[in-house]
């Protein structure tokens, strides 16, 4: 199982301003993102990103013979049914949620299921354990997972230590506030935080950002 986080961040490690503006990527960065989408079996975002950005998560900017599954991680099953993920469906999309989320949103569950959206139930409570989520995806034959944020979902994955790589594009902007690449309660000590080493560092063709590939090490 491979889990890769792809994020485009400001120099101060933020992926959106405090008003939610996340338009940080240049054309080359978007192409790189779509190359990663082409690599993946499934592309995931958190519930808030799905609501705020309403992404389609298609592979469009990179030649690709396949489309990955597209999905949202939403433990409380609060995403609306009219997201692009569910209305633009030439390829399958999924909601990864909990039993609690489904119990509390039975009508939405039935509606989305009847439209062909696959609802994957990965845990009991709405705060899901990401090891369970990844295990469930693995059971379904999904091996390559690309996570496009936001910070809350990234934190859940880092906290439960299921991330193998972090592909971060650092853009020459300082936002001063807003959502961080990884945003959660955080670790108490440096020693308990997972370690990553840079595998490659590359200045972007646009000359204004740097692509860094970080690999998880024991
Ligand atoms: N620049 C970039 O590369 C980039 C990329 C993506 C997003 N963004 C920006 O980031 C912002 C959104 O980030 P965010 O941190 O606020 O939200 P987020 O990570 O997109 O979504 C958080 C939500 O994901 C669900 N989730 C996360 N961990 C979970 C777990 N362990 N179990 C169950 N559900 C879980 C929860 O949904 P429930 O509450 O329903 O349980 C949680 O509220 C937006 O402004 C967006 O534009 C930027």
Note down, in words, how this protein is organized:
With 218 residues, the chain is α/β, with parallel strands linked by helices. It has one domain (2-217): Dihydrofolate Reductase, subunit A, CATH 3.40.430. The chain is globular. The chain is 27% helix and 28% strand. It has a nine-stranded mixed sheet with strand order 5-4-3-2-6-1-7-9-8, with helices on both faces. The protein has helices spanning 27-39, 47-53, 84-87, 99-104, 106-114, 130-139, 151-159; strands at residues 2-10, 42-46, 69-73, 93-98, 118-123, 144-147, 165-171, 195-203, 209-217. 39% of the residues are buried. A hairpin with a 5-residue loop joins strand 8 (195-203) and strand 9. Bound molecules: NADP nicotinamide-adenine-dinucleotide phosphate (NAP). Residues 7-8, 15-16, 20, 22, 24, 45-49, 52-53, 73-76, 78, 126-128, 130, 148-153, 156, 179, 183 line the site of NADP nicotinamide-adenine-dinucleotide phosphate (NAP).
Shape annotation: globular
- Any idea what the CATH superfamily is called? Dihydrofolate Reductase, subunit A
pLDDT average, as an integer? 97
Percent helix, as a range, is 25-40%
Main sheet specs: 9 strands, mixed
Order of SSEs? EHEHEHEHHEHEHEEE
Low-confidence stretches: none
C-alpha end-to-end distance: 16 Å
Query: In the CATH classification, which architecture applies?
Result: 3-Layer(aba) Sandwich
Strand order of the largest sheet: 5-4-3-2-6-1-7-9-8
The assigned structural class equals: alpha/beta
Number of discrete domains: 1
CATH-assigned fold name: Dihydrofolate Reductase, subunit A
Strand content: 25-35%
Q: Calculate Rg over CA atoms.
A: 17 Å
CATH class: Alpha Beta
Name the bound molecules: NADP nicotinamide-adenine-dinucleotide phosphate
Q: How many alpha or pi helices? A: 7
Total count of strands: 9
């Amino acid at each position: 199982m491979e889990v890769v986080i792809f994020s485009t961040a400001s120099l101060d490690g933020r992926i959106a301003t405090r008003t939610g503006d996340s338009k940080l990527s240049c054309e080359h960065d978007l192409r790189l993102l779509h190359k990663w989408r082409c690599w993946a079996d499934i592309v995931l975002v958190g519930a808030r990103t799905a609501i705020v950005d309403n992404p389609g998560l298609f592979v469009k900017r990179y030649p690709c013979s396949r489309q990955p599954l597209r999905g949202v991680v939403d433990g409380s099953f609060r995403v609306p049914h009219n997201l692009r993920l569910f209305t633009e469906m030439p390829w399958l999309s999924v909601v990864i949620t909990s039993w609690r989320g489904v119990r509390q949103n039975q009508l939405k569950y039935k509606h989305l299921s009847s439209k062909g959206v696959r609802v994957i139930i990965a845990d009991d409570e709405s705060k899901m354990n990401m090891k369970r989520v990844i295990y469930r995806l693995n059971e379904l034959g999904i091996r390559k997972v690309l996570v496009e944020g936001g910070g809350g979902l990234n934190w859940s994955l880092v906290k439960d230590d299921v991330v193998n790589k972090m592909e971060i594009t650092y853009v020459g902007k300082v936002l001063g506030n807003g959502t961080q690449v990884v945003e959660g309660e955080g670790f108490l000590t440096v020693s308990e935080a997972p370690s990553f080493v840079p595998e490659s560092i590359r200045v972007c063709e646009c000359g204004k950002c740097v692509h860094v590939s970080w690999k998880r090490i024991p």
